[in-house]
């Protein structure tokens, strides 16, 4: 992929009302980068017409495996094993995916056009002509994690609370939001207000993905494999990808691509913090008993009361089953002293046992989460809420009870 590269810009399609387009030659392969609008029936039509023209022998699209699966099978998310989701620590990511999907559904209802229609058109048209379909985008979960690690810790809460607040709002999607969707996908449009002013956010959200998608093309299109590849991307990525393709690409693109998929491991401090808290709490109990048996039992009782009540009350917010609430009240004080298991995991497990989701819950999941009350009505999304609220309640209880113990021992 280090051969000389000839670049040509094609303008006639824009003059005819099509999307922006660049055609570049990299070695033996020509790439036509088609900048699409993610909320546009015209873009979907243009994609179909180009693929049906017979000019291309492969199609690359701005999707990762998980989003491709969701597009090809809209019920894929609902078919996952919920218990495994909680066990693997993916509940937060699944909740975020559902929230983004809710935003997308609201846009579809308001505009009459489903965001990503041009990607679906590419999928269907390439299948109809038996053309290879290349998935070149980075996994959305990796992008979210790199965004999380790239922004300063004090900005993370406002960033993701803004994300969830925006996608769960029942207000009409603004014209400005729809215009942003024409340049980027749902994830980009949600963060665009922040990204335009933050290099730390722009880098993992936009520029890294420009480079990543070009590296994926280099991996999947070695010299001689394809003659002409249609690359269907959001218009906001066209300039960046064209610039990367105009420069010599590495002969072995995989190592660089893997660095763009890596997420920084948790710092040793954060990994050690739960064990440190456990040690401090147990030490506090020991000091209390050494001073006075009554004081020791008082500290233990306060730990169980504060942690259990806050965690149980948090699950009430999610309208958890009564047995789930009771189980959380008793489990949270114990799980807070055992970093290998969380109160949310216990709460979600009991909720699944008491209210196992039915077939209709999975069938209506994507529609239900477009309404705030739907998150509580659907058993799948409500179980996610139970997990998240129990986790937050237990964390709050741990810190409040911990400071209470410290105050009782050293407050004079």
From TrEMBL:
Keywords from UniProt, A to Z, are: Membrane, Transmembrane, Transmembrane helix
Q: Does the keyword Lyase apply?
A: no
Q: Where is the segment annotated Disordered?
A: 1-23
Q: Does the keyword Cytoplasm apply?
A: no
Any Pfam family matching the protein: TraB_PrgY_gumN
Where do transmembrane segments lie in this chain?
272-289, 301-320, 326-350, 383-406
Q: What is this protein called?
A: TraB family protein
Q: What is the lineage of its organism?
A: Bacteria, Pseudomonadati, Pseudomonadota, Gammaproteobacteria, Oceanospirillales
């Amino acid at each position: 992929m280090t051969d000389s590269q000839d670049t040509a810009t094609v303008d006639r399609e824009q003059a005819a009302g099509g999307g922006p387009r660049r055609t570049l030659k990299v070695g033996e392969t020509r790439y036509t980068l088609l900048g699409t609008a993610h909320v546009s029936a015209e873009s979907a039509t243009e994609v179909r017409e180009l693929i049906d023209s017979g000019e291309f022998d492969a199609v690359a699209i701005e999707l990762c495996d998980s989003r491709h699966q969701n597009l090809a099978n809209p019920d894929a998310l609902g078919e996952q094993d919920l218990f495994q989701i909680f066990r693997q620590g993916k509940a937060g990511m699944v909740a975020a995916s559902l929230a983004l999907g809710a935003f997308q559904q609201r846009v579809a209802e308001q505009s009459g056009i489903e965001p990503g229609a041009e990607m679906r058109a590419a999928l269907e048209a390439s299948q109809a002509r038996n053309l290879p379909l290349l998935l070149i985008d980075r996994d959305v979960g990796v992008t979210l994690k790199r965004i999380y690690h790239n922004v300063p810790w004090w900005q993370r809460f406002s960033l993701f609370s803004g994300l969830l607040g925006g996608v769960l709002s029942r207000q009409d999607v603004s014209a400005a939001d729809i215009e942003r969707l024409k340049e980027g996908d749902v994830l980009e449009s949600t963060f665009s207000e922040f990204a335009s002013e933050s290099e730390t956010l722009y880098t993992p959200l936009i520029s890294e993905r420009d480079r990543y998608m070009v590296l994926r093309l280099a991996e999947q299109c070695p010299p001689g494999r394809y003659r002409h590849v249609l690359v269907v991307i959001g218009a906001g990525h066209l300039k960046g990808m064209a610039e990367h393709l105009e420069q010599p690409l590495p002969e072995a693109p995989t190592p660089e691509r893997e660095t763009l998929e890596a997420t920084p491991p948790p710092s040793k401090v954060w990994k050690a913090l739960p064990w440190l808290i456990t040690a401090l709490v147990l030490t506090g109990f020991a000091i209390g008993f050494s001073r006075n048996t009554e004081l020791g039992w008082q500290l233990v009782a306060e730990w169980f009361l504060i942690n259990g009540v806050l965690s149980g009350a948090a699950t009430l917010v999610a309208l958890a089953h009564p047995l789930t609430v009771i189980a959380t009240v008793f489990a949270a004080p114990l799980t807070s002293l055992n970093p290998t298991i969380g109160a949310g995991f216990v709460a979600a497990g009991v909720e699944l046992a008491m209210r196992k989701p039915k077939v209709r819950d999975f069938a209506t999941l994507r529609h239900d989460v477009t309404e705030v009350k739907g998150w509580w009505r659907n058993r799948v999304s409500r179980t996610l809420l139970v997990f998240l609220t129990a986790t937050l309640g237990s964390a709050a209880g741990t810190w409040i009870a911990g400071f209470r113990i410290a105050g009782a021992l050293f407050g004079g």
